[in-house]
Amino acid sequence: MTDKRNGLKFPCLVLDHDDTTVNSTATIHYPCFVEYMEKFFPSVHLTLEEYFNANFDPGVVALFTEICGMTEEQMMDEEHYWAAYCRTHSAKAYPGIREILEEQRRRGGRFCVVSHSFTENILRDYRENGLPEPDMVFGWEYPPEQRKPSPWPLQKIMAQYGYEPEELLVVDDLKPGYDMARAAGVPFAAAGWANDIEKIESYMRKHCDRYYKTVQALWKDLFEQT
């Protein structure tokens, strides 16, 4: 479907942050996880691939409670440790992301962010990578019931700008983003450029509306086939 507004296929992109816009799990979140586990849970050892898979399914909360065996209080302590770590570590945007955001904005479209990172860190990464600022950001600081996979962020975006579900495209590398989009009736595109993990790629290719192995493939679908 090509939208009548400025010829955009999707007037509003809804982007994940980590491993969709910036390369952060391998360079920031996993090293922080390893550091924390070595200090406080030395019996827990996950490879980077295992960490990716756990974040994919069952998700970050279950990773800490079910796999690492943390209590709610311990998980809050880890969250403070992670937040402090992220304040001093910035991630690099994937090549081509800036051009997509600039073209989306140039054509009169919008883009928002729904992420499991804190908004302050998301906006810092955008500034440090020279990316245009998002129209709306929904980060980890929101209550659990308003974070993805809840459809609440998408509902708020649609209410704010008057969009119909088919006018949004969620771009995310993990299952919580897919579940959020499905719950809201919004098209979903899998960002496959962050890793080459067979379990994740197989699931996304099977279930998602679109699967992009490269950032350039996303550009082509958004702007060259309208």
Describe this protein's structure.
The model has no long low-confidence stretch (mean pLDDT about 95). This protein has a six-stranded parallel beta sheet with strand order 5-4-1-6-7-8, sandwiched between helices. A two-stranded antiparallel sheet has the order 2-3. The protein starts with 11 loop residues before the first strand and ends with a helix. It contains ten helices and eight strands. It is of the alpha/beta class and about 230 residues long. The longest helix has 16 residues, at about 25-40. It folds into two domains: about 10-25 and about 95-225, Rossmann fold (3-Layer(aba) Sandwich), CATH 3.40.50.1000; about 25-85. The chain has helices at about 25-40, 50-55, 60-65, 70-85, 95-105, 120-130, 150-160, 175-185, 200-205, 215-225; strands at about 10-15, 20-25, 90-95, 110-115, 135-140, 170, 190, 210. Helices cover about 50% and strands about 10% of the residues.
